[in-house]
Model the fold of this input.
Amino acid sequence: MLAELLPEILLIGAALLLVLLQGFCGRDACAKLSGYISLAACGGALLLVSLHSGAGVERVLIPEIIKLDAFSLFFKLLFLTLSFLVILGSLDAVKRYRMGGEYYTMLLFTTFGMLIASMAVDLAVLYIAVELATISTFALAAFRKDRQGAEAGVKYFVIGALSSALVLFGISLLYGIAGSTSLTAIAEALGSSSGPVASLAVVFLIAGFGYKIAAVPFHMWAPDTYQGAPSTVTAFLAGATKKMAFLALMRIFIVALPGLVESWAMLFAVLAVLTMTVGNLVALVQSNIKRMLAYSSVAQAGYVLVAFAVLSSKADLTLAAGAALLHMFVHAIMKGGAFLAVAAAGSAIAGRDISDFAGLGRRMPVTAFTLSIFLLSLAGIPFFAGFVSKFLILMASVSAGGAYIALGVLLVINSVISLYYYAKVIRVMYFEGGEVHRAEEPVMLVAALVVSAIIVLYVGIFPESAIQLAKSSAASLFTP
Amino acid sequence: MIQELVFLVISLFVIAGAAGVVFAQRLFHAVLSLALCLLSVAAVYITLGAEFLAVIQVLVYAGGVVVLFLFAVMLTRSDLQLRREPLESFAPVSAVLFGVLVLFYIARTGFVPQGERALAPGDVASVGQVIFSPKAYALPFELVGILLLAAMVGAIYLARRDERW
Done:
């Protein structure tokens, strides 16, 4: 069992080492050393997980508590890739803002929590792992101790605590029904009956996790938090921690509550429509690039929810779940990359308004070029990864037929709307701004950007293997 | 009958304490109301036969957390008057509506919560068995330890003044 948990042990070991380290060296040296240690730990864990993932293993580590299957390996790959990229990019940002080594400690704690959450098949473990990851990000969101950072941190903390309470209420109702926190035991106890108490639990769970994924009636914290947090942290929040809430939703609803699929899928459909439309329309009028990306993140969560809604149909469920998984992975890379590009631009540009980015194409060519790739991918232009995953969601909704097609059509309409605000940034970067001087681009951030851009292009041009991986990972969710 | 009566009285105290936290004008009173609320919850645990949990509740919450709050309030600004925004008119209405809805849902089904196992009164040993057995909740228990460490590191970072490095 310890061999399978090696990535987690590596991460938590490094995190504990960093906690001790802070007492023994000066601030800047410590931050630098912590950065390299956490980069090495994350890289090592990523390597271990990617070695595992090919084998198609399914290992029950502790019966009814944690399980290593293709689904959890997929998410581990997502979380570790993004953590690695964010830590790599942070090596520059931490130096610039003179942030301490605690920054990396919190990142490692969060990543550790997310990895455990990916394996949890018990509500107690899942809840605590999600909490572990969330609590660590509260401090990260407020890491720059200025006014905006404080606002970001407080909003995130209050909403996070509220949503956790809602989730816990839902969990307690499920425990009351089944007398057990194990997901399979809950599925057995519920059977195909949909009692009122169970539907109440569904409502609480969707509302609680709805806050965490920033679906529309629950999204108001996201723009403020994403704007006030340091850009590297925002990349992590939008890319990784949000996906953890999706992961928890998929595990709980598909494994424990398949009997209530009619009612929860309908709620997801309503949320999907609201989330896509409101997210995109509000993003249109944003002038701050981080707020714009935050609303675009809201809209993209809506696309994933479309795939969730399709799960109630009679069509190929692994296609719908696989499409959701692939879009989460692709979105993590491209949105994480976009926020990292904003962080890179921050070394030469003081403001975060879209108009401040004028002339970035000549000033910081690599940053601007990679940012354009991420934006085009977010818009869903062919030959970029975002197109592949969106197309897969569209395919799932069309093959389900009936009212699901309407969801697909709405997705396409929303993609067209979104093209406007993504393209606006590219236009400003390349066609506006007078004479500008070349600025030095932060090396580590550029490295992270280039790696993300390569992933986005690779998945966009050769999508077969990524689609296969996502579908087989989703399939493991349906086989008990 | 007598059990239900006791439960009703205790519940009234829980609700009164919770309402006091929300509506108290002075911070100090809010903290005292919180203590009332938490102690009454401990009483609920006793009526359910979970004595161990009740003791923990008193020790940790009423004993530790509330005292810590009181210290913080008294050491900082005990004269602090809370300014309250006038409540939006629809907020209490929707809260009451939601509460009625939940009550209606649960009452209509005759929902009887299932417990995992009934503990004999004062049976601390079996609580320990469940928490520390690797097949049960040992892993979440260890995770909570890491969670607390992460919360502590984060809190210390946020509370620390940077210049003192």
